[in-house]
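Q: Convert this sequence to structure tokens.
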Amino acid sequence: MTGGAAAKLRRSAAVRLLSWLLAATAAATVAVDVLNWWYATDRGFGLAVRSGWALLRTIGFLILIRHVRRGRAGARPLGLILAVTTVFAVGRLIVPRAGVPALPGVLGFAVLAVLCGCVVWLLYRSPALREHLVRHPGRLVLDRRGISWQEVAPRRPPVTGWLLTARVAAFTYAPLTLVPCLVAIGTILDGRLVAVPTVVLWFGIGIGVSYAVLFSTFFLLRGRAWAARLLVLITVGVIAVDLAFCWLLLGVDGLVRDGVPLVMAAALTLYALRRGGRAARDGGASESPVAAAAARPG
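A:
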């Protein structure tokens, strides 16, 4: 067997292994969510919203399987943020307001955490997957041969994986802000009509955050140094507003359940920005001009 054939065989085996692992993680997410709902003593509006958000992550894992099989470069940052936020999204469900968690839920969560850890390890430590996850999304191309669907490299400069990770992590700000906002609607249904203006403001901020992140990350991947600083400001602002509203409307329970996942996503965003900038300052050949621009002070 030639070296090229052996490398291709290793990539195929790694892709199949990761695909099955992602499918098992998606199934474990559903199983733990169902177990938690079965054993929960307070099946209120808030638990329904948080459980629904956890179940939506199953779709994320299925999308990630498609990206892995197609060799998309964005699969690594997507897998990282999906695994990290899934652990926190499901973990907050198994802890009741009072008492200890049910043993089946704890065991299911432990299995899910191990699966998510294995997913991240394979994505970032497997040489075969590193060689496989290099392709760009396809798009319609018009040339002399007519219209065809081809893989096309983006026109922006090549970007480091850490900046892609920062972008993906920042895109979770909006849903992680809107989930506790939707949970707070339950306080209105319980008769706290005074909370209506705050919930409406919270919802508007969550929508605005999505556009702000889209704007900043668009220029971040195009080498604009100010975009990295803007993303840091957005991150700090989102944390301050969301934690304040969680405390005001949902109390300590909501602050822990809904604030911690957002803080973790923000920490990952800031860490990814720092790693990209540090590698550029050290003159790392693997970093892109975008990271170098993000590292410059002005």
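Residues 284-298 have pLDDT under 50 and may be disordered.
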